[in-house]
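Collaborator request, handled under Task 6.
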Amino acid sequence: MDTEGFLLDQVARLTGASKANLAFWAKSDLLRPSIADGQGKGSRRVYGFKDVVALRTIEGLRRAGVSVQALRKVASHLRELGADVPFSECWLATNGVDVYTARGDELMALLRQPGQRAFSWAVVDVSEVVKEVREGIRQLAAA
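Structure tokens returned to the collaborator:
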């Protein structure tokens, strides 16, 4: 499945993100397609499976109130921690203000100083996102 490619319409259906948002996120380097990036008018972006998982995670974080500016910072920190495709390979949680990831047995803040307390959480379970994307792919294939 990692070598399959997904076009913009398919990615929008699988992630719940609008085509406009997907295009903006690619152009602004939040998450570029790993298989083929758009190269001018008429060319197509082709996303890989991990890209789709990451974009669905990004869309979930956006719906939880995390800004695109904050997501850029999170992506940068995740890359520093060794993520090949940020948002697709880790456990993330948010309170709408900060985004946290697990590192060992510690919860590490990615936007603010570590140790800040938060009371309202939205947890993005990437393993569930992977399952949901796979099911969406099955439904696309059956259509």
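The cover message to the collaborator said: "The chain is about 45% helix and 10% strand. The radius of gyration is 15 Å. Please let us know whether this matches your experimental observations."
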